[in-house]
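Title: Comparing notes on inverse folding

I've been comparing how different people in this forum approach sequence design from structure. To keep things fair, I'm posting one structure and asking everyone to reply with a full sequence. Here's the target:
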């Protein structure tokens, strides 16, 4: 067979030669719309690559980005790894201290910053050592002389001098850091090969997404979060029209783009999609939508969310699960032929699960007694392996014993059951599962049910100390506007779904559930809040 390296320039060539006339659309910080084609994108990407090489970047160097979702960020996604350098998107929702730590730990050589994010950058710039700072002009102000202008840099590049990286497919191409909810953020490297296989697997019809050239994709998931779940690469590979929302992620701005650009496919975390659903339910006739599918990930999907989008607006929901350590895709709640014959209620139950592992991802579960049976009942920690799953952290953070098994499987920290058919259902995170009187209670299952109550917008359930049972569940809830509830009402609502000992010992209304930088519930903050209030 021909020797052929699986490297990212393959995607760039394919986009330019086969889909050159397809559009890439971006909403800019002034809310204007920028449009150009894949052909334009390819030329500018090559120019940027040549210009970065002239600045002294070489194979294995790291170039960081501090940017929103837009066309220039997509250019960096390709220009940097397609020359053998590693792109390292920074999570703009982390603290300045964490950002400074990450840049130094990664040893980033250059950083590309949105002009509108300069105030954030300047909070930690004195703590880092980079050779150049490149600023993307998108705020309408004069860029300080100490920084390089991104557009000037692109204009200076000669695309005819572009030399695509055709080296070892195992070379690093992309760098991500975990959000650091427990300890310091940890770095993970994705190789050219792992990204290419991740892209090809997700594009298979068996995953349920069915992304193709005819789709118009708007990723609400940020490009600084686990490579936007791989969408910039998978969509470019098949010539999907891509629409980027820029810094405007409120429900009204997203819904306007959905309608104006005739979006067929979107992806994001449940908390964002709940705000979009709430806006649609408040004014159901305001927007004309063309959406066929919403891909949800990042945290558990409440059953009511999938049901409401489907029954009220004819939009299907696909639940995906993964981790930064997995590049990030692991499984999807795809409708198998068996489930397609099931009742709607059974299908909605299934969508709330994590579903089948995608091709190339292998799974198993383990508890204190050994590997768990695939019976849909026995709980244990999920372990995974596959060609895009990391085998270690950058610079050896965490030991093998802490995060990886002796035979090379990643310990996910998720407590799951696995059905006879191989369907994964996450019951909880290992650190969040409630162990009451020797029995495990799933905080995730309680939260999803509570958010199905007509008065509850969001709910987070934590373990609180108990003298008799060791731990008991307690719920923090956010009310929908103008709604209220009684504890007896919620107890009765949950009693139809769970055993009596699962019912929370109490409920407390708060204005908002604290969240991590990627939109997950920050339960450590709620546990601390409870302890402070009950000293």
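Reply #1:
Here's my take.
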């Amino acid at each position: 067979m021909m020797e052929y390296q699986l490297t990212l320039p393959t995607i760039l060539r394919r986009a330019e030669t086969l889909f050159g006339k397809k559009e890439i659309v971006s909403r800019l910080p002034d809310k204007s719309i920028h449009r150009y084609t894949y052909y334009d994108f390819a030329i500018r990407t090559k120019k940027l690559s040549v210009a970065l090489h002239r600045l002294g970047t070489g194979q294995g160097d790291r170039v960081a980005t501090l940017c929103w979702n837009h066309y220039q960020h997509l250019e960096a996604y390709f220009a940097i790894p397609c020359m053998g350098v590693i792109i390292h998107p920074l999570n703009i929702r982390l603290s300045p201290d964490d950002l400074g730590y990450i840049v130094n730990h990664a040893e980033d050589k250059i950083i590309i910053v949105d002009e509108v994010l300069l105030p954030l950058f300047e909070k930690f710039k004195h703590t880092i050592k980079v050779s150049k700072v490149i600023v993307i002009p998108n705020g309408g102000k004069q860029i300080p002389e100490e920084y390089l202008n991104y557009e000037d840099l692109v204009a200076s590049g000669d695309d005819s001098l572009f030399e695509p990286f055709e080296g070892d497919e195992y070379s690093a191409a992309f760098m991500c850091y975990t959000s650091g909810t427990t300890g310091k953020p940890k770095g993970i490297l994705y190789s050219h090969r792992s990204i290419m296989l991740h892209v090809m697997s997700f594009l298979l019809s068996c995953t349920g997404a069915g992304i193709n050239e005819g789709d118009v994709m708007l990723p609400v998931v940020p490009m600084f979060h686990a490579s936007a779940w791989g969408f910039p690469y998978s969509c470019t590979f098949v010539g999907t029209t891509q629409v980027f929302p820029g810094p405007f992620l409120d429900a009204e701005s997203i819904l306007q783009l959905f309608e104006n650009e005739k979006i067929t496919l979107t992806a994001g975390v449940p908390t964002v999609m709940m705000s979009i659903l709430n806006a649609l339910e408040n004014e159901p006739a305001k927007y004309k939508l063309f959406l066929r599918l919403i891909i949800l990930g990042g945290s558990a999907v409440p059953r009511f969310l999938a049901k409401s989008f489907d029954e009220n607006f004819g939009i299907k929901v696909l639940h995906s699960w993964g981790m930064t350590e997995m590049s990030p895709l692991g499984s999807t709640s795809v409708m198998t032929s068996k489930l397609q014959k099931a009742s709607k209620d059974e299908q909605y139950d299934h969508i709330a699960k994590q579903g089948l592992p995608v091709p190339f991802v292998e799974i198993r579960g383990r508890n204190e007694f050994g590997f768990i049976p695939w019976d849909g009942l026995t709980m244990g920690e999920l372990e995974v392996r596959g060609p895009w799953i990391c085998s270690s952290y950058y610079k050896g953070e965490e030991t093998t014993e802490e995060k990886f098994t002796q035979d090379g499987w990643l310990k996910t920290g998720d407590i799951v059951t696995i059905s006879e058919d191989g369907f994964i259902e996450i019951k909880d995170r290992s650190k969040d599962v409630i162990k009451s009187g020797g029995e495990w209670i799933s905080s995730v299952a309680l939260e999803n049910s509570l958010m199905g109550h007509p008065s509850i917008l969001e709910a987070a359930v934590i373990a609180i100390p108990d003298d008799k049972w060791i731990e008991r569940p307690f719920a923090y809830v956010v009310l929908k506007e103008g709604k209220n509830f009684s504890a007896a009402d919620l107890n009765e609502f949950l009693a139809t779904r769970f055993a009596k000992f699962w019912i929370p010992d109490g409920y407390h209304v708060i204005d908002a559930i604290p969240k991590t930088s990627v939109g997950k519930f920050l339960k450590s903050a709620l546990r601390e809040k409870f302890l402070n209030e009950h000293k």
